[in-house]
Amino acid sequence: MKRNYLFFLLFITGILSVFTIIIPSYTELNQLNKKSDIRYLNGYNQYNKKCAFCHQQDGSGINDYFPPLYNSDYLLKDKKVVAEVLIFGLMDTITVNGKTYSGIMHPVLGTDQDIADIFNYMYQEFGNNAQSITSLEISTIRQKGKEAKRLEIYK
Do 95 and 69 reside in the same domain of the chain? Predict the structure, then answer.
């Protein structure tokens, strides 16, 4: 009887160990889901084409020249401000994680969906999971900005 019980325990242990090898963890599943998501992939590709040269592929930025995006307190502010920077660019002095940066960031060229995908990729990948944005929100921000610029011209 003890022999059958021991055999049964070994059998169950073997089955469980096979399942832990075959079945991915929650974190692995989450990574697989992100990497198979078309919006995530587009954000990854667009970020690497349009942003990584200055802000680096890992979001670390370039010391004294381009601010980091990774764990950036600036990105945790109002998402509308961050979206405006992506859409319209920035020529100003900003403070990121206590360090001052002065320079120019050109607008990110692309569709509203491309910009939303870049925005969401940055927030998912660089430790800034607080916010997300839709292409409709990007479109609204873009339109309001164009109207504001138009009003400035006619002053």
Answer: yes
Indicate the pTM of the whole model.
0.73
Q: Mark whether 29 and 5 lie in a shared domain.
A: yes
Q: Tens digits of per-residue pLDDT, 6-60?
A: 555 555 655 555 444 555 555 554 555 566 689 999 999 999 999 999 999 999 9
Domain limits for position 32? 1-36
32 and 6 in a single domain? The answer is: yes
Q: How far is CA 86 from CA 79, 111, 118, 135, 143, in A?
A: 11, 12, 9, 13, 14
Give the other-Cβ count within 10 Å of 119's Cβ: 28
Tell me which residue has tokens 């940066």: 101
Same domain, 135 and 93: yes
Q: Phi first, then psi: what are they for 97, rounded to 5°?
A: 50, 40
Task: Count up the domains in the chain and report the number.
Answer: 2
| Number of C-beta neighbours around residue 131 at 10 A | 17
Q: List alpha helices for 56-134, DSSP H.
A: 79-88, 112-125
Q: What distance, in Å, lies between the first and last C-alpha atoms of the chain?
A: 95
Tokens 């004294």 — which residue?
64
